[in-house]
Specification:
Layout lengths: L2 H7 L4 E5 L5 E3 H17 L7 E5 L4 H11 L4 E5 L5 H10 L2 E7 L21 E4 L7 E2 H7 L12 E2 L1 E4 L5 E5 L13 H10 L6 E4 L6 H12 L3 E4 L5 H11 L3 E4 L1 H8 L3 H6 L7 E4 L6 H11 L3 E5 L7 E4 L1 H6 L3 E7 L1 E5 L12 E6 L6 E2 L3 H6 L8 E2 L4 E4 L5 E5 L5 E3 L2 E3 L1 H8 L5 E11 L3 E10 L7 H11 L11 E5 L18
Parallel strand pairs: 1-12, 3-4, 3-5, 4-8, 5-6, 6-7, 11-12, 11-13, 13-14, 14-15, 27-28
Antiparallel strand pairs: 1-2, 9-10, 10-20, 15-16, 16-17, 17-23, 18-19, 19-21, 19-22, 22-23, 24-25, 26-27
Helix pairs in contact: 1-2, 2-3, 2-5, 6-7, 9-11
């Protein structure tokens, strides 16, 4: 269903609650305000297939803008507000955003957004939570628009961004659903609602940033079935436990780092909070150490579930708590698509052999916006309906998938993808750097952190001060989370005669 249906059935029920302020977004308010924004966007000339962007911290108004797009047949791009203005502008330009919504608390991220021509006309850039130069006020926009539902409400969807091998973000564009928003089900609701028993009684705790695919989509699923989202502004281990108890949370989603931080709380703190209301605690985004999962099951009971997928929606595997204990390290069996493991020549490999993971679907489920070559690279050479995001693993005899590596040396730190190429490109121009490689190293809490291995220019001496200088130098162009946490100076880096860096030969 679409949340508008619950505005008629249960208008006063909370669709979402801001855990920090206690503010409640009812279904009636969500429906009315998203309708008003839909009118505003239509008045600007936006039509089915156009794109809006949202650059904001966790705020209830993100849901209003999101559902305004969903009920208007638009794509909505949720943009990471930690990016630099230049990086944000790249995404706004690439997705051809015809309107952008931004929170005043992240105004710096959109400080140059007016450089995008499509946003130059009045009303195309809208700010909430305070003024942003050149942006219309959100409350004024709402007040000026009618609240009657539009006669034509085609279903829209998200268009999220994922970085690629060059470090430039790439937009993941899926075909728009055909039909009206109240007639065509949301694809993620169709998958996850039955998989995890999500319905109108669901109380879903969202501890992660809404610009990430899983939190945004799971919040959408919760509101599409008439449940209630409890939105945290940022994750805090003890606060999360307190919210589970306070709101009798039934469903939640985490990354393994969050599990680690909760497990490291004092035993008295962990025992203090009642988590018995939890029916399903999902984790994804990064591999979870078997011992961490086992400890969480010991603590919370058999409610820990995992799925493996991608922002692209190429396919997905699922595994429940009992299966995870029986097959430690597995991410489960495919339930969206058919998992295929292929060698470098494209030939399908037998059980137990490691290769590239593909998912077979009826048709290619996505394309990379403005990047046909990357879309082609994601397709199997002989099967256009087999798609990969480049991960490597193997299947056992029973079809359970195990991950063994990740594409392009991507570092997953605390559930966030860090792409080494971006940091390498930012550091290589420093006068003291002759060569550089950024690699992932194990970290007990974050899973991995980025380490910069730097070969210095002749005549340059290594020092702790220089290491910090290099990190700061990289920070001129990159968001903080993309930077290496540490620098190690090396005599040389392994490269082939053609100049290709062989990272597996770097000794750490």
């Amino acid at each position: 269903m679409y949340p508008g249906a619950f505005a008629d059935l249960t208008p006063g029920k909370p669709a979402a609650i801001d855990a920090s302020t206690g503010e409640i977004l009812t279904y009636a308010r969500l429906d009315e305000q998203s309708t008003r924004l839909a009118h505003h966007l239509a008045g600007l000339g936006l039509r089915r297939g156009d794109t809006i962007a949202v650059v904001a911290g966790n705020d209830l108004r993100v849901f209003v803008a999101y559902f305004a797009a969903i009920r208007s047949g638009l794509y909505v791009a949720a943009v990471n507000f930690h990016l630099t203005p230049g990086e944000v502008n790249y995404i706004l330009d690439d997705c051809a955003a015809k309107a952008v919504f931004a929170g005043a608390d992240v105004a710096e991220a959109v400080s140059r957004a007016r450089e995008i021509a499509a946003l130059a006309a009045p009303g195309h850039a809208i700010a909430w939570g305070g003024p942003i130069d050149g942006f219309a006020a959100y409350d004024d926009v709402l007040a000026a628009a009618p609240s009657t539902r539009l006669a034509d409400q085609p279903r829209g969807t998200d268009m999220l961004y994922s970085s690629g091998t060059t470090g430039r973000p790439k937009g993941i564009r899926i075909p728009l659903p055909e039909g009206q928003v109240d007639e065509v089900p949301d694809a993620y609701t169709a998958i996850f609602s039955p998989a995890y028993g999500m319905d109108e009684d669901t109380v879903y705790l969202s501890p992660a940033p809404l610009y990430h695919a899983a939190p945004l989509r799971f919040c959408g699923v919760t509101m599409s079935v008439g449940g209630t989202v409890i939105m945290m502004h940022r994750f805090d281990a003890e606060e999360a436990l307190a919210l589970i108890e306070k709101y009798r949370v039934t469903h939640s989603q985490w990354v393994p780092t969050m599990f680690v931080r909760m497990l490291k709380l004092p035993a008295r703190s962990r025992a203090h909070y009642d988590t018995s209301s939890l029916r399903v605690a999902v984790h994804a985004a990064a591999p979870c150490p078997a011992e961490v999962k086992r400890s969480m099951i010991d603590w919370w009971g058999p409610v820990i579930h995992e799925y493996y997928g991608s922002t692209e929606g190429a396919g997905a595997t699922f595994i429940g708590p009992q299966e995870a204990l029986e097959r430690p390290g597995s991410v489960g069996r495919a339930q969206v698509g058919i998992a295929r493991i292929c060698g470098d020549d494209g030939a399908e490999l037998p059980a137990g052999e490691v290769g590239t993971i593909y998912f077979e679907r009826d048709e290619m489920p996505f394309r990379y916006h403005n990047a046909p070559e990357k879309t082609s690279a994601a397709q199997h050479p002989d099967h256009a309906n087999w798609a990969t995001t480049g991960d490597v693993g193997y299947l056992d005899e029973d079809g359970y998938l195990y991950l063994t590596d990740r594409k392009d040396f991507v570092i997953i730190s605390g559930g966030v993808n860090v792409y080494p190429q971006e940091a390498e490109s930012a550091l290589i121009m420093h006068p003291a750097v002759a060569d550089v490689a950024v690699i992932g190293v194990p970290d007990d809490e974050l899973g991995e952190t980025a380490l910069a291995c730097v070969q210095l220019a002749p005549g340059t001496a290594p020092s702790d001060e220089l290491a910090q200088e290099l990190i700061a130098y990289g920070g001129r162009d990159l968001a903080r989370y993309k930077l290496p946490r540490a620098v190690r100076f090396v005599d040389s880096l392994p490269r082939t005669p053609t100049g290709k860096l062989v990272k597996r030969l770097i000794e750490v």
